[in-house]
Amino acid sequence: MSPSVNERAKTFVQVLRRVLALAAPYFRSEEKWRARLMFAAIVALNLAYVYALVLFNQWYGRFYDGLQNKDAVVFWREVRVFCVLAFFNIALQVLKFYVTQLLQLRWRAWITRNYLGRWMANRTFYELELARYAKSDNATPDNPDQRIQEDMQLFTAATMTLSMGLLNAVVTLISFVGILWGLSGTTALPIGGTTYEIAGSMVWLALVYCVVGTVITHYIGRPLIGLNFRQQRFEADFRHHLVRVREYSEAIALDRGETVERGQLDLRFGAVLRNYLALIKQQKNLVTFTAFFGQAAVISPFVVAAPRFFSGAIQLGQLMQISSAFGKVQDALSWFVDNYDNVASWRATADRLTSFDDAIRAHAEKTNAFERSDAEVLRTDGLSLSLPGGSKPLLANAALSAAAGDSVLVQGPSGSGKSTLFRAFAGIWPFGSGKVQVPADAMFLPQRPYVPNGPLRQALAYPEDAAKYSDAELRQALADALLPDLAARLDDSDAWSQKLSGGEQQRLAIARVLLKKPRWIFADEISSALDGPAEHTLYQRLSEMVRSRNGAMVSIAHRAAVGEFHTQRWTLVPEAEGAAARYRVEVTPAGGAAA
To answer: Does the pLDDT value for residue 136 go beyond 70?
Structure first.
């Protein structure tokens, strides 16, 4: 066995193990007994379907013999038998379809919920996106939304279809190979003046025919696996950019960026079309061969069995039985030929899902370099922060602290790591090390808040249930955040991230804080889209709130006017060349009123 064959065998075993790792959990889950029972029912229905085919094959012999003998009694009797067999066959197919689809639906529901839970747990969704931008991490899966929404549906449907098709082919082969062997008789094969009697010649013909066809099909269709994998990725990239254009429609329109975005969309759609054209060309080659392969199989049994029929050794009924049995054996043996395109697409889908599963599993097994704990104060010890793929840390061994009653303003050049420090306090930044202690009763406000679609009251209370708060509390929070016009729209449902301006979205995020009244506030440029008077009013209200609760506020801001609401300033200062980190933190008074 050559090394290349060894490698293919190892690859096949690896693929099989990975696919089983994807498929098996559902059949070991809390739904295992229902799933196994439905699967067993589908297997039983497939076996019954093959039995029906055997009955049809026997029927061919009696029916065509009756026609050849011009026996009207046999003809009409077999017509009635056919009606019974046809009804039985139709009922089997309908029931098999329904149970199969039901199992696919339940399997897809379970596997989707399972992966959604794992993807959303422990901020995996966030850290996988960060890892995509790390230069050293090229294996991070792209477009997890497409893998969860589309690939899981394709995987469950294709796995059921192909596995049941393969089972059907194996059972059909076992059932019909004996029938075909018995009907084949012996065939004389003259070679070099010597005649050889070959028993079961039709079986050997079908075997050789299908083995040759399978090998040729594999070499013609092998590129389809990679092409299908890339097609799914290019389609997802194109769809993702369409969504971005919709989400940032206003900014694109204001920048007159339609031409650039159209170019980006054309670029991505061009990749879709180029790969699809390559896929079509490869499929054309495969279809050309499989069509020739299928057509040749129709006439082959008649050509081989014709001498016996014309010599009177067999009747028309037996000839038709031979044709039917040969067709079933040939179909079973050529299952791989007929389904190569589907197998290639399924393999590409399985590869995408296994890489997604590997990424989630690797994240779950990763140990966090940060030691984060709850405390009454904010404190860091030996804090080091890096960027994804960055060679030199932003900060090294930083020791910072703030207690209740403090108010801290974080400043520094753009790109110095202010927001990264903010994320480390929040416990979502994975790149770095050190100890971080943060008060439990705290809220973190990003510069660009997330505003979900739906009722305004839910967007205001997010992520809590709005039912936790009275209408009066919700309206007061909006009024305090300078959004009085929205107080009457609590039950309006809309795409608020599109409806509200950037300043209104920032004020809505501040309204959440005023509604929930945490002791500690961590704010990242939360007033960047506000005018000066609004910024002053809202910072004053936030300061009064944390003072009343004996808490503290840590803000990131560039505007000097914000300094009056803070007593400390943490400034990220560039380090000299050769230092352990790119920046260090200098702690100075902010010049604001004492909290």
So the answer is: no
- Say if residue 4's pLDDT is above 70: no
Distance, CA of 133 to CA of 24 (rounded, Å): 32
Write the pLDDT tens digit of every residue in 100-125. Answer: 999 999 999 999 999 999 888 888 88
List the single range of 7-16, 101-110, 313-322, 407-416 with lowest mean pLDDT: 7-16
Q: Quick one: tokens of 225? A: 């696996």
Strand arrangement, sheet containing 552-556: 442-445, 520-524, 552-556, 407-411, 568-574, 583-589
Here the tokens at position 104 are: 């696919």
Q: What is the maximum alpha-carbon separation in the chain?
A: 114
Q: How far apart are CA 512 and CA 504, in angstroms?
A: 12
Q: Are β-strands 454-455 and 407-411 bridged in parallel, bridged antiparallel, or unpaired? A: unpaired
How many C-alpha atoms does 266 have within 13 Å on its Cβ side? 6
- CA–CA dist 52, 43 (Å, integer): 14
CA distance 424 to 449: 18
This prediction's pTM: 0.75
In this prediction, residues 298-305 reach a mean pLDDT of: 73
What is the SS3 assignment for 436? Answer: strand
Of 488, 499, 417, the closest CA to residue 452 belongs to 499
* Residue 263 neighbours by CB under 8 Å, 6+ apart: none
The residues near 207 (Cβ < 8 Å, ≥ 6 apart) are: 333
